[in-house]
Amino acid sequence: MLRHWFGKAVHGVGIILILITILFPLYWMIAASLKTADQLFSVPPVWFWHPTLSGYIDAIFDSGILTALKNSVIVTSCAIALGLAVGAPAAYGIARYSFVGRKQIWFWYVTNWMLVPVVILLPFYLTASSLNLINSPLVLILVYQVFVVPLIVWLLVDQFRSVPVVLEEAALLDGLNRFEIFWRVALPLVKPGIAVAAILAGIFAWNNLIFASVLTPSDEARTAPTIAMAYLGGYSVPWTKVMASATMICAPVIVGGIVVHKYIARGLTLGAVK
Amino acid sequence: MATTTKTEFVESTGQVGGADTVRPPLRQRLEPWFFVAPSLILLLMVGLFPIVYTGYFSFHDWTMGFGTPSFSGLSNYIEALTTKAFGLSVARTLVLLAITLPVQLALGMAIALALDAPHNPFLKRLLQICLVIPIAVTPAVIGLLAQLMFNQQFGIINYLIGLVGIGPVDWLGGSVSAFATVVIVQIWEWTPFVALVLSASLATVPKDIEEAAMLETARWWPRFKSVVLPYMWPGITAALVFQTAFTVKAFGMIYSIAKGGPGGATRTAMLHIERVGFRGFDVGLASAESVLMLVMSIVLAQIYIKAFYRDS
User: Fold this and answer.
1) CB contact, 8 Å: B25 with chain A?
2) Are the beta carbons of A12 and B119 closer than 8 angstroms?
3) pTM of whole model > 0.90?
4) Would you call A269 and B53 a contact, using CB atoms and an 8 Å cutoff?
């Protein structure tokens, strides 16, 4: 009995320590965004203070963070939409048909996830600049498909496989063709899976820095992670403003991550863990 | 049972071979491709065509913005392999991998086991939700935050270690300490992911087998080694595959912490190639180095996929 009580206490303390390690940096970011510069630089650190929104006001009024967030929303949502438009049918095809090359296609999608981005960065940049598409959200939407499509396909193949085949067979007997079955029977049944795939793909698209910083560098076209970097150019870093921006940039992905937290491991492990 | 039904369903639409069946009409044989082709075309366009283009440039000399590419044979590859900068950046990437992988695996396993223990359901639930946060947070933001927290003068880390009499450390100023900072932050960022994967794979261990082993021996380690671990290999391999990819591909966090500095101490292969291509404008060399990285990642991916799918 004593041993049980002791084990429980050790376990609880351990988990609390892990929670502090995970959450403290985020607390510190949000705290810094609500301090004045003096409070932020103070040693020893200020633990209790009257929060101020001046960091947020600075960020919103003089650094184009709103434009960057808007660009990120446009790029991310279009990348998800395009990824779903091509990825959902592909997942259905892979889940429900057996055809020559099915396995190879699937492996190739897996390899795309391992692809080091610099390998495709230069040609993308050169092609985009010869087509006058640098600073166009279209280029980012396209290049993000390299990881968005594989992610969506992996997640949805699993989802489509879990749809009972009898439902689709019944629909076939009712005279629907396979495209109608996909669209009207299978797709509605995997709606929750689609939401998860969309959010997961969205997190990676939203967070990307390397493609965004090279392909959309202008003030008007840059995305949220890129603008965060822009503050670091000068000699003195406006930390309260930077942390206010940082909080705004990662708020949507943190919320999205929490919504899909149950699926994130499964989604990224190609169903190896079941 | 499920697989039989699936096969029947597939066959009922014309996949049947054999003596008395006619070859299915072309439309039915093409049917799966209507579903798969759009994604295939898109990925060929954005994922394969650029690689071919990079391959072409790797055999040419060209400074971006000046003149036209001229054929130069293998000279870019020779330059990449014989000058120090690229080799060092690959070495840094591999050192980063060699340090972070074991630590992430060990800590991740500890967290997974903590989540599997029967105590404190509320704390475990909270931890499960919070584990996703470091994975979701924008890496560029993580790097900025690290700059603030590891700052020599006013950073909270130096204040905290000062309380126990260590420091102050010039985290981002020295080459070893800057690399250590990247290591620490990389571990913070991705250990939760390893924990989630291992926790999911721990859940696949059948409870009755575990209970039977409990009757066999009361000691934890032999039980873990011979009963639990075999079920976890696919999960462990998956964690390794993804951590390798995440580490080799890491850019946003490392770049925003120190932009590869001080003196190149944190310049991993990704940062090095980006610098050669987009700051030095040496398209040929950057392309050759990219191709070498591609070969490396394909070899790694193939090794992992082979190991990985044998079990599942």
Assistant:
1) no
2) yes
3) no
4) no
For chain B, the farthest-separated pair of C-alpha atoms sits apart, in whole angstroms, at 85
Tell the burial category of B152 from Cβ atoms under 10 Å away from its Cβ (0-12, 13-18, 19+).
middle
Q: Which of residues 121-140 of B touch A (CB under 8 A)?
A: 123-124, 126-140
B140: nearest CB among A108, A142, A229: A229
3-state secondary structure (DSSP) of residue B282: strand
Query: Which amino acid type is present at position A96?
Result: R
**CB contact at 8 A, A209 and A54:** no
pLDDT in tens, chain B (312 residues): 334 344 445 444 444 344 445 667 777 778 888 999 999 999 998 888 888 888 888 898 888 777 788 788 888 898 888 888 899 999 999 999 999 999 999 999 999 999 988 888 899 999 989 999 999 999 999 999 999 899 888 888 988 888 888 878 888 888 899 999 999 999 999 999 999 989 888 888 888 887 888 787 778 888 888 888 888 888 888 888 888 888 988 888 999 888 887 888 899 988 999 888 888 888 889 899 999 988 888 787 777 767 766 544
Q: How far is A15 from chain B (nearest CA, A)?
A: 7
Task: Among B5, B15, B36, B310, pick the best mutation site for testing chain A contact (most A Cβ within 10 A).
Answer: B36
